[in-house]
Amino acid sequence: MNSDASHDESSLLIREILIHVVEHPDAKDTLDGIHKFWLSARTAQQSRNRVSAALEYLSEQKHWLTKKSAGAEVTLFGVNKDRADEIRKFLSAS
Predict the structure, then answer these.
(1) What per-residue confidence (pLDDT) applies to 57?
(2) Domains delineated in the chain
(3) pLDDT at site 5
(4) Model confidence over 43-85: pLDDT tens digits?
(5) In which element (H, E) is residue 66 found?
(6) Beta-carbon neighbour count of residue 28 at 10 Å?
């Protein structure tokens, strides 16, 4: 797979995660839950590592998702409601 295809897949994955949190602003889930339930059939085939990388990017770099520990090995992701307008602008522009 070339890097353009990889970038396109990552962009689609990021868009699907963001669409989900915009449509369900109170949704919070773990990496595994997001991988299993938030993604369409088209992106659900993405590796767990790729989904993890997208979540880290969206929470740590963009600050569009919140990331909260819920126990020793459980991390929940959800939308950063303070950034909802920014997320909507991103989704409508791309």
Answers:
(1) 96
(2) 3-93 (1.10.10.10)
(3) 53
(4) 777 788 899 999 999 999 999 999 999 877 899 999 999 999 9
(5) strand 65-69
(6) 16
Token representation of residue 8: 């396109």
CB within 8 A of 71, min separation 6: which ones?
none
- Kindly give the interhelix angle for 3-23 and 84-93, rounded to the nearest 10 degrees: 130
Cα gap 78→34, rounded to integer Å? 10
59 in Cβ contact with 65 (< 8 Å)? yes
Span between the terminal Cα atoms of the chain, in Å: 23
Report how far residue 34's alpha carbon sits from residue 49's, in angstroms, rounded to the nearest whole number: 12
Q: Please, what is the angle between helix 48-56 and helix 3-23, to 10°? A: 70
